[in-house]
Amino acid sequence: MKWLSRPWVLVLWASALPALVQASDFTLRLRYREETNPNSGRYHVRYRTEHWQASQTAVIVCDMWDLHHCLNAVRRCREMAPRMNQVLAYLRDAGAAVIHAPSGCMEFYREHPARLRAQQVPKARNLPAEIGSWCHKIPAEERGPYPIDQSDGGEDDDPFEHAAWVQILQQMGRNPRAPWTRQSELLEIDPQRDYISDRGEEIWSILEARGIHNVILVGVHTNMCVLGRPFGLRNMSRYGKNVVLMRDMTDTMYNPNRAPYVSHFTGTDLIVEHIEKFVCPTITSDQLLGGEPFRFSADRRPTLTILCSEPEYHTERTLPPWALEELGKEFRVMVVYGEDSDGNRMPGLHEALREADVVLMSVRRRALPAEDMAALRAYLDAGKPVVAIRTSSHAFSLRGASPPEGHVTWETWDPEILGGNYTGHYPAGPVTSIQSAPEASGHPILEGVDVEALVGRGSLYKVRPLRPGTVPLLLGTIHVEGMAVEPEPVAWTYLTPAGGRVFYTSLGHEGDFTQPAFRLLLANAVRWAAGRIAYQH
Questions:
Q1: What is the pLDDT of residues 141-158, one digit of tens each?
Q2: Domain enclosing residue 392, as ranges
């Protein structure tokens, strides 16, 4: 290796180089979470734009080791590394500091110029007291539960593959529990400009010596090393650095066989969400490189975007846990809530619609800001699907009243998009008996649904006659003394004018979510809308 031949000359020559690089600026869109109301436990997704000067910025590469005890982790790191290398090259050439932090591998790099450069940096006078220690939690994290069970170490290997992997590591002379010796060779280390260190004191001193305030963390694993290392997100945040996680350049150690029993990639999403709530904002690599955010090839989840803004049935409490439990293995789930003080406003809606593959709505009588309504219309004009429950039949109707300034309604939403004809409801109280509609025979949405066990807990909606082209799936009947009530459709499918699949049900009362039959009905509807075969229970 050339860098072993004359390290001191090279280090001395290169040590002044960062000051000679022409730094540039870049604009980042930071995503973070803000509680809808104190102690609500629900969070708006918010964004803010910041302009960073590269000379005041560093990227820390956390534990992108050459090998790992989890074979799937090795595979994912190797898949992610080329894109990460592009990020590092971009930041390096812009004038930012690149710090490689493969913990426990300093012996391999003991004569590397980048390692020597890190050791030569004078110790900062303002070293935080615990910057050299692992940080397991910061006070802000006490406000919410930790989202995944990682007590088993998080390995998600197939048991037979893992046993074979252990044998391979042993044959290589590696410790199967800690086989790493260096950083992945897929990440380039610039001997003239970069730093190598796994010590919190050294990395903090590098930041201070270069006047760095902005820090980007990339690497693995988010729920362990990226958060907890001495140079990780928690310490950078609590000691005052303007730190962000690049959320598409990371991974988790999470086993889907542990709570909350979701896919590995949903586990990563939950950790990212936790970080955005309590630790720091996040960004994505496309903000620097262009194109689209990185996504693992095995992550084929469509995105389900849930819109919650209604004051009656508490679907802001029922829909998110239902989605995680029923669809967390198959879908990426995003939730957009209405403002508690003004339900017409739904922070993050515009961005969420851009990412959505399926929209699930529980909205009642809202007039959206004009730009948000335009985004919803654009989503529908693209032929994308909608699943709507209960009051979503009158989601954007104010009964003819004028909307607030800058807001718009959609009075024809129900017949135009859902194929419905909502004109009110029968008195509350009687339980609605449910039966399959004649047209529903063999429909995949009803696959496995015990219709005979299904009842409606809320008032029966008056929706007859439906628009031509609807396919009724379920009919509801109530018995009211002295009143003749004909069966009403309570679930049907339709196509939007652009050809997008629609499922609507007037079920969705808080009590309906306690019924396995309703939970499966709604999950099947989302799968059907997304073009996926109904899950076989």
A1: 999 999 999 999 999 999
A2: 303-529
